[in-house]
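Subject: Phenylalanine--tRNA ligase, mitochondrial

B.,
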Amino acid sequence: QQRLNSTTTSTNEPITVQEHQYETDEWTNAPAQILSSVSRRLHLQKDHPITITRKIIESRFPGFKTHNSLFPVVTTYQNFDSLGFQPDHPGRSRTDTYYVNKNTVLRTHTSAHQADVFRANESDGYLISADVYRRDAVDRSHYPIFHQMEAALTWDSNSLNGESLAKRVWEDLEALPKNSIEVLDENPTIHPERNPLQQEHKQEDVEAIAAHLKKSLENVVVEIFARAAESSKSTTNNVTEAPLKVRWVEAYFPFTSPSWELEVFWQDEWLEVLGCGVVKQQLLNNAGVPTRSGWAFGIGLERIAMILFNIPDIRLFWSQDPRFLSQFSESAQPLVSRFVPFSKHPACYKDISFWLRSSSAAGGMVKGTTSDFHENDFMELVRDVCGDLVEDVRLTDEFAHPKSGRRSMCYRINYRSLERTLTNEETNGMHERVRQALVEKMGVELR
Ligand code: FA5
Ligand code: MG
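Prediction pasted inline below.
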């Protein structure tokens, strides 16, 4: 039995998303604020940095069929089951995913469309760009709506004319643009436990597919870095910047194996920019294309755009402020220029400490999470009350009372507007409303 989402009132009013109507039920947890942003589709807005980023990446994949306006409401089958997510996978939880109703969600990733696009079988390569939705942390690189670009390339064994798959893939790799980027890649392509070969696959084929995948993505990174470097040259008086560091790390996705993530060292930390891998053969078989095998990746467009344009905060992409929007143009020369922040407004930190309901005391030990307190509920509550006026929310302390076992949490909320200086009155007012909502909706006791 899952607890009702604390930030949504439970009426049984149907939900309308654009022209479509959906029944609601006890699973419904998509807030109005999120649903009303579905129409923004930043990846299609002319001159928007997300659109520019999308087009730059698309240009690296000539011949791939593009799908850029797939509808964001999908079935749980599309988002999870078709990809092999087990019934108890945490990604399905209402703390992580926005449900429209029990069988319907706002897609949490562009992979929700993989099976359908494979089934349509219209091209060897395809690209899907779209808005995706997740309940997640509040900080400079996470936002509940963001944009992904999915790509897949498969080879049909019926069209190899007697050649081996591995040989064909290596030939295709030879034809890719050359680059001399140095990428840390310390692990073997296949690892029997951590990153296994699928039983349907031959090792030599997978080695070739993986090499083609990594080379294709490294070419994207080269393009991004070249443009970012060009833009910083034109605005920073030839101050030379250290070349960006990049590394491949092993990953796990239910729908690829082996799998990897690519990370870029940016602003003093490793930033994950994409996930990828060799498509599960079972998925292709189920999609009616059993003679195809190949790779897929999903890239976070905001993360790339932040590196490209030097945009420091993910909330900026949603800004309607002309001081933001006017800095980007699809016809600019050079196309990419460094974002010039409008004056940075002061931050205001405020702490909030509370005791969880005593039933929570015996809860799980995952950071910030117990059996009936989930950090994402708190994050969403803050967004609900404060909108984009909060820069980040962090857990700063957590402990259990030695005698009663009751758990106490302390979060630090950093209030900062991107557009203006907040008054003390305004921040105090917001903080008070967060405190009240926390008591009313999550039943905690403030300290
Ligand atoms: C996925 O979503 C997989 N569907 C990717 C994939 C596709 C793997 C095809 C294999 C084959 P992940 O949850 O790691 O994976 O998200 C992919 C990227 O989206 C991340 O690397 C990151 O760049 C971006 N991302 C994830 N969460 C957020 C967020 N809250 N805000 C902004 N960007 C995010
Ligand atoms: Mg990831």
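The domain at 37-72+107-325 is CATH 3.30.930.10 (BirA Bifunctional Protein; domain 2).

T.
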